[in-house]
Amino acid sequence: MSNVLSQKRDYYAGGLMSLIGVGVILEARHYNLGTLFHMGPGFFPIILGVTLTLIGIVIAAAAATAPPAEEDILHLPNPQWRAWACIIAGPVLFIVFGVDWPTLQAIVKYPTGIIPATFACVFVSALGDKGSTLLGSFILAVGISVFGVLLFSYLLQVSMPAWRWGAL
Questions:
Q1: 84-95 pLDDT per residue, tens
Q2: What beta strand segments (E) does 9-101 contain?
Q3: Which of these three, 75, 91, 123, is where a domain ends?
C-alpha cells in the first residue's frame, strides 16, 4: 500500500470559501432584501455570500482539474498502531478506574478514584512511545498521580475520592 496522499490546498480552500458563502446567504436571507434603489439590510450580505460562493467554486474547480504539484504530495509514515492504541486506552482506563461501576465491580473488585485512574491513564499512555520503558512509564505515572492528588484533591478540592476499593 502506498502511503502517498495528494493534498490540494486550493481545492480545500475553495470548498471552505463556498461553504462560508452559503452560510452567509442562509443567514442573510432572514433580513429584508429591499430593492436595488432602496437596499435592505440583507442585500449586501447576500451579494457578498453569492460572490464568495462563486469565487470558491471557481478556485475549487481549477484546483480539482490541475495535477498535484510536488509540494502537494504528502508522504505518510507507517501508522503507529501501538501508540494509537495506548493513547486511546489511557482515557478509557481513566474512565473505568475513575468512576464507580457497580455492575462491573460486582464481578471484579478493583480500586477506583483519582489515584488509580491517573496512574492507569498515564502509565498506559506513556507506553505508546517507542522509546519508553516500563520503569520510565511507572515513574512518570507515580509522579503525575502524586501531583494530581495534591492538585485536585487538596488544592482544588474536587469531590472525586483519592482511593476507593470496590463498592465499599
A1: 999 999 999 998
A2: 73-75
A3: 75
